[in-house]
Amino acid sequence: MVHSIQNFEALACPEPVDGAENDLRRDALEIAEAGYAAINVGSAIERKMSIKNDVLQIMDGTSKATPQTKTYHLAGRRVFFVGIGKCALTAASAIEKLFGDTLTGGIAFDVSAEFLRKSDIHRNGGCLTSSSKIEVFIGTHPLPSEVNEQATKRIIEFLSDCREDDLVIFLISGGGSTLLCSPEAPMTPADESALFKELTAHGATIQDINTVRKHISSARGGGLARAAYPAEILSLIVSDVPGNDIAFISSGPTVQDSSTITDAKEVLARYNITISNITFIETPKEEKYFERVTNLLFLTSKDALDAMKDEAAKRGYETEIVDDHFSGEAREVGRAVVEKLHDASQKTALLYAGESTVTLREVRPPSQAGGRNQEIALASLETILDDEIILPFASDGHDNTDYAGAIGDSISRAHASEHNLSIAEYIVAHRSYEFFSITGDALSTGYTGSNISDLIIALKK
């Protein structure tokens, strides 16, 4: 069996540790695998979209209980695809397979250099395959760059040729905010990078960060809907934002924005950020740009949570989805999950989705990197019991590092003891990456082609 978690067996079957429960590890990892499978964008396109007799049908919504279908007539129309974010390339391959000759052209703007290394894109003139109609661009993330700026310019140019009878299918996924860099002079991508670093270091929420981002780029906050006007737009949105507010997912490039420049300035004031060289841009407010736009939540954390709940039930666990939009400081989230696990009955599975925050008190050298999921796992080691395990992980496989997350259990704690590591010292310094690199208890997935919120699995034997 091919696992999304590349080091699955190494984590499931570590060296024997007295008093440790390997079975809990395997259960947690298998439940995580079910979550990853449910949010694979390519599989979701095959599952939720079909074309018959020149009619596109798409399942509306992520609820299995009350699915509805939207239809789009394709005969005589030009059909374009624009994919943005961490799922763009995976989606582009599936869209091209689905539409075949019906697809007129497209652009996929992704962040994954790993995908690029494994492909023949360079040899195919910057397209997915030698016969592909989809141009491919790989941008930088999490910080914007001139590469992102140039690719965004190309997307806007591409959309500017759209006509009223055209259909543009967008796939919007996490990472798109960084990619859609289109500042107004004299502001530059480097200025935006400095601003993003400051907001992150001050613990700003994704909602606050994206409120600012929408007002420093002409492509965000409805900017791509304006660029594609007067075409009809179907925007498939993969949510990585707790609460699934589409206005904040990749800074809402096809969503009419209700915030203003004043709101963006208030965010900066709230975090005492006084960076210069910020050129603010008001987002498009005219109704005409959005009258023929359908923004559809295509994949959310619910898809992963439902699949993980089913897998946990198969393994005999009484399962509860505790929170589908958790937030807060990562270390406090980890401690709270473990505390709830202590009070749970035997054979219990607790599931969570959301996004925590790591607030840095001082600038760290690169060698002291960490990730919010790894910090959750690290904090759990303070009090986790022998019959408990916590597994926090990033759906995109990148927890601010090349790890997706880490395991918090008695085995991880024993590994730390073997290497004379102080859990408390590593928590204070936010050095979770270094910690789990030494203990060997981090998850590695590589490029997943998926991106919803972070996920947490907590099990009690």
TrEMBL record:
Q: What GO annotations for molecular function exist for this entry?
A: glycerate kinase activity
Query: What GO CC terms are in its UniProt record?
Result: cytoplasm
Q: Which residues form the MOFRL-associated domain?
A: 28-274
Give all residue intervals belonging to the MOFRL domain: 349-454
Q: Which SUPFAM superfamilies match?
A: GckA/TtuD-like
| The organism's place on the tree of life at top rank | Bacteria
Among PANTHER family, the record links this protein to: GLYCERATE KINASE (PTHR12227:SF0)
UniProt protein name: Glycerate kinase
Species: Candidatus Kaiserbacteria bacterium RIFOXYD1_FULL_47_14
